[in-house]
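hi! just following up on the protien thing from before. the input was this:
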Amino acid sequence: MNELSSDGAAEAPVAGARGGPASRWDRLNGPARVPGVDLARGLAVLGMLAAHLITIERLVWTDPSTWAGIVQGRSSILFATLAGVSIGLVTGGRTPYQGERMTTARLRLVIRAGLLWVLGVLLIATGAPVVVILPAYAILFLLAIPFTRLSARTLFLIAAGCVFATPVVVAAVDSLPIWEGDDGTFLELFLGWHYPFASWITFVLAGLGAARAGLRRTRVQVWLVVAGTALAVVAGALDTLTGVDEPDTTDVWDVLWTARPHSGGVLEILGSGGFALAILGACLLLCRTVVVWIVLPLRAVGSMPLSAYAAQILVWAAVSAVVLGDPGRLFAFRALDPFPPFAIGTIVACTAWALLIGRGPFEWMTDRIARGMVPGPGPGPYDERR
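and the predicted 3d structure came back as:
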């Protein structure tokens, strides 16, 4: 995605392979990066970790004690939106690559998608009770490739159409008998259908559109906040006025017209997609100020999201197996209150790695393999200010 598999520096040389501490600092803070994107990725990583490790009440906006529920569904959707941003960055940013350069970038995305899928299957095999998102991301990478030459306006228009069309497709696929029994369970895991790519392509296209609009432009950043907030508020209001608390899964209206997390309903796509765009815009604006230095540890997490995500699951499985004797005991593991040490450990480890070594290990690996398998002209320096 993504840093889930590439960084905003458009395939900059691997920090740590040569040079000293200054090269690591430049990689994290140099002009080739977009710090607001790293910040948004860092928040998405920690949000998904919270959704996994904390038993969270249903979000009720009028009850502040439930506001932790904002991470449910929205963190993974933010992740998917940022996948589209990353695809946009490595295929030219504001101006899509042309000719051989675009062909090379697309082929490398195919390789990265394959690596993401393999890593996702390996993480599933750990037995940690996490619905691993990487298989779905791999498929989303492939689905996004044909759209990489399109303009921002076209991408946003297609995404808008997908908001209303794709939930119908997902509902139809969900009704198929292929999901029944153990075979259906395995198929759902290996396709990542808990995050149905048929509708989640909407978020990727929106993120790709944001990258094509020009992430460094102030008016784009403000537009993302305003438009994203408006979408989230409208979707929330419509859900309050017309939605139901206990949906009937046999009622098409209840299935399609809802904002419930992980429902795939129109209002969830509209509201959580808008939320993701607003968070992206807010992070971009914040990182134009002195806040950019205050949030450096979060940006470090966001500079290596694939490594942070995979490491969390690997550590989770190992600790749960040792302490509980079974990596699959979700509620017993949550009872250990693992979120604070996991969150702090992730932030500290990623910050130390970014400053002392450089690029995240899984980001480095996927990039090296992709460039090794698809030689050709590398992208030029990424700069949206042109």
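Residues 21-373 form one domain.
Residues 99-124 form the longest helix (26 residues).
cheers
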